[in-house]
Structure to design on (478 residues):
């Protein structure tokens, strides 16, 4: 293991290299290719908050990459190393991600340079509200223009503060709740949003494992059951992905990498127990159910079937790419593989399920939440009566069939109660997410298999999504 080399491009340059690689295979005018690639605008704000008897200054960003569709959408990250290059790279990825999964948004992203662990809850509320105030004033948070969501270091709590701040500053906006997604359920959120990105990673892997031809490209076969997985980052995305893959698909989590080191256990680590240990102690060190590895990033190079980087960008780079043994990488994080590492891994035959697809579950369910807020009605509420009436018809038919068979067969009570229960909001969200992840995979896959000049899923994903951005430009007559 070594740190990234000085020859490594920045995150934004890395995204641009990958974009250019796809554009070279497309029939696009250089001018239009350039227009789509560049970031439209980045707003930098420095603001002060009175804390602990003194004034503390913070720096934040909101970047808008593309407004080919509005509102633009993208998370807000709270981390010490946030900078303009990073938010612009993340905003660009949002454009391509939304296009790929057909969420009708342009791309945006925000960030605040802060280590949230240094502040208590009250201080975090003051800081978050003040940052939100600065962005709301400039329509960089607005239901019809720019809709943030959680990202690294933020979650439901911060989104609730932001929504409340917007509502206070826009008391007559009936759609105020739609100014941000990822809110708690009782503050206008939607069932299943917290785990949506991790759930999407699981659905993406399930879809990949439905295609023997695709598995063969990675030298894999069979199902997710028993597959050895290493995950980096046991936060929102990594925890949910690992938990669902372990408890619902039978995969084995053989490695977990966190800030303070890693854990290894060839027999499998209990994800919930590791998470509880992190919550209690702040790290993985001292966890009894696995071997502690001080240089956690070394576990990226561990023998396994699937590697899930779910923390930071640039963790698989020119320095360690050649040591990566996983035949399949799914980019739960944004930009975990640099463009240089991507080339090395492709050469080695490693299959990479790219970030713009792999972690699109979050924005997909955010889209559902935004629609729910604008329609002012819970998902499923309108359909419920009609659905119940149709279900009763089926039960009546089955009862009649049972009578004609003189009771030799009849529908079980369990069937009747389960069937009549119908789909609630969570079921609708999950099925909508599953459908989205399947359809987006199919669109990437078709390009991957149909074209001799496309040998990886990332290039295929870029070709599909750039194509969708281009057609929305054309629709506007541009
Ligand atoms: N939250 C979402 O809905 C969402 C959606 C799409 C993409 N993403 C992407 O997923 C990634 C993770 O986001 P998240 O929301 O889970 O963040 P999070 O803050 O909930 O979790 C990040 C985790 O990574 C760990 N971590 C930080 N530095 C590390 C290091 N050097 N080595 C190992 N672990 C480290 C943290 O301790 C934490 O457990 C980011 O790239 C983010 O952009 C998140």
């Amino acid at each position: 293991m070594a740190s990234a080399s000085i020859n490594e491009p920045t995150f934004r340059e890395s995204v641009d290299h990958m974009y250019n690689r796809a554009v070279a295979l497309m029939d696009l005018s250089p001018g239009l290719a350039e227009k789509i690639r560049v970031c439209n605008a980045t707003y930098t704000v420095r603001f002060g908050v009175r804390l602990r008897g003194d004034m503390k200054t913070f720096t934040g960003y909101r970047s808008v990459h593309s407004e080919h569709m509005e509102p633009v959408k993208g998370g807000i990250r709270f981390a010490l190393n946030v900078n303009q290059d990073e938010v612009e790279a993340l905003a660009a990825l949002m454009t391509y991600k939304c296009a790929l999964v057909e969420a009708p948004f342009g791309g945006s992203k925000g960030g605040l340079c802060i280590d949230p662990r240094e502040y208590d809850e009250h201080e975090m509320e003051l800081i978050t509200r003040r940052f939100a105030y600065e962005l709301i004033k400039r329509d960089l948070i607005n239901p019809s223009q720019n809709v943030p969501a959680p990202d690294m270091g933020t979650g439901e709590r911060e989104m609730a503060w932001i929504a409340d701040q917007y509502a206070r500053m826009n008391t007559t906006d009936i759609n105020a709740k739609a100014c941000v997604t990822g809110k708690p359920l009782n503050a206008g959120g939607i069932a299943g949003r917290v785990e949506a990105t991790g759930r999407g990673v699981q659905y993406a892997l399930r879809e990949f494992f439905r295609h023997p031809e695709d598995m063969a490209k990675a030298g894999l076969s069979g199902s997710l059951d028993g597959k050895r997985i290493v995950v980096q980052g046991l936060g929102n995305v990594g925890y949910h992905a690992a938990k669902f893959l372990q408890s619902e698909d039978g995969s084995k989590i053989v490695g977990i990498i966190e800030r303070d080191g890693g854990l290894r256990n060839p027999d499998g680590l209990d994800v919930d127990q590791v998470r509880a240990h992190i919550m209690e102690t702040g790290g993985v060190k001292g966890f009894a159910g696995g071997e502690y590895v001080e240089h956690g990033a070394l576990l990226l190079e561990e023998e396994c079937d699937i590697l899930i980087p779910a923390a930071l960008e640039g963790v698989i780079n020119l320095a360690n790419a050649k040591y990566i043994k996983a035949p399949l990488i799914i980019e739960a994080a944004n930009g975990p593989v640099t463009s240089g590492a991507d080339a090395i891994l492709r050469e080695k035959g490693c299959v990479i399920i790219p970030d713009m697809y792999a972690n699109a579950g979050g924005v997909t369910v955010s889209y559902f939440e935004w629609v729910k807020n604008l329609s002012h009605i819970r998902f499923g509420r309108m359909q419920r009566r009609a659905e119940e009436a149709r279900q009763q018809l089926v039960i009546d038919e089955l009862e009649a069939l049972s009578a004609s068979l003189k009771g030799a067969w009849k529908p079980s009570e369990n069937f009747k109660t389960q069937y009549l229960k119908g789909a609630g909001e969570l079921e609708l969200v999950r099925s909508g997410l599953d459908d989205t992840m399947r359809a987006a995979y199919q669109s990437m896959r078709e390009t991957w298999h149909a074209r001799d000049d496309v040998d990886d899923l990332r290039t295929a994903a870029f070709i599909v999504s750039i194509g969708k951005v281009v057609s929305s430009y054309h629709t506007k007559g541009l």
About this structure: DSSP finds 16 helices and 13 strands in the chain. The longest strand covers residues 54-66.
